[in-house]
Amino acid sequence: MIKIKELSKSFGELKAVDRLNLSVPAGELFCFLGPNGAGKTTTIKMLTGLMKPDSGVIKVNEHDITKYPVEAKRIMGYIPDMPYIYEHLTPVEYIEFVADLYKVSGQRVVETIAGDFEQLGLNQYQDTLVRDLSHGFRQRLIYAATFLHDPQVMFVDEPLVGLDPYTIRVIKDLLRERVKSGMTIFLTTHILAVAEEIADRIGIISEGKLVALGTLKELREQVGADDSLEDIFLQLTAGEY
Predict the structure, then answer these.
(1) Tens of pLDDT along 208-223?
(2) How many CA atoms lie within 13 A of 87 on its CB side?
(3) Which of 71, 97, 120, 175 could form a Cys-Cys staple with 63, CB 3.0–4.6 A?
(4) Torsion of the alpha carbons at 11, 15, 16 and 20, rounded to the nearest 10
């Protein structure tokens, strides 16, 4: 579903991403880990077409993101680490706005408000202005809006920053549920316990290079110890500190 070949990006002398090769199949929740500045967000921005790579190929469901960006973006959803929502809209108005952008039917909007709003606890805030919502409920609204056009692939950059434990549980359950239905999710997080809990596979990037890839069991085999993901991560990225 996601295929990355020899992907590179530099900023002056800094090699942010260095010849990255990676494949994420359909229906997998893939966690991409790395220290600050390792290249995670740069990678996601290239995968979503927000940043042009210096070299390499990115395909999303066989659509080359550079050659066919519209086709690729039609089947993807993206939640950045600091998403923006129009604050003077209500959640319902925001969903209707996003529906217009993606040419989503009115029936789908009704289904989202009836289903996803219920699941995400947004029903009681339907007529509340976004500016008056807490950070957690804004994040929940972002997920409802991102799922609106039923993306096949979803990119999520640091999805749990600043959230309370209840909202974290809601979002974790939501992501696993979507993966079970066939969605592919590419997620970055600094919360290693979350990656250890929900990821099908894990990739660790350090100084722009992929240094480890596999299930938690496979990562343990690579380092030759039955360690926690935190210990494995620190061992593989020690050179960046």
Answers:
(1) 999 999 999 999 998 8
(2) 6
(3) 71
(4) 130
> What CATH topology corresponds to 1-75+155-163+185-241?
Rossmann fold (3.40.50)
The phi, psi pair for 76, rounded to 5°, reads -120, 155
Q: Which residues sit opposite 152 in a β-bridge?
A: none
**What pLDDT, in 10s, does the model give residues 2-30?**
999 999 999 999 999 999 999 999 999 99
Q: Which residue has the higher pLDDT, 226 or 123?
A: 123
Residue in this structure with the two tokens 């290239």, named with its chain if needed = 46
**Total-model pTM:** 0.91
> Helix, strand, coil shares of the chain as percentages rounded to 5?
40, 25, 35
Contact 213, 201 (CB under 8 A): yes
Rounded to 5°, the CA angle 215-193-180 comes to 55
Residue ranges of domains in the chain? 1-75+155-163+185-241
| 232 contacts 212 by C-beta, under 8 angstroms | yes
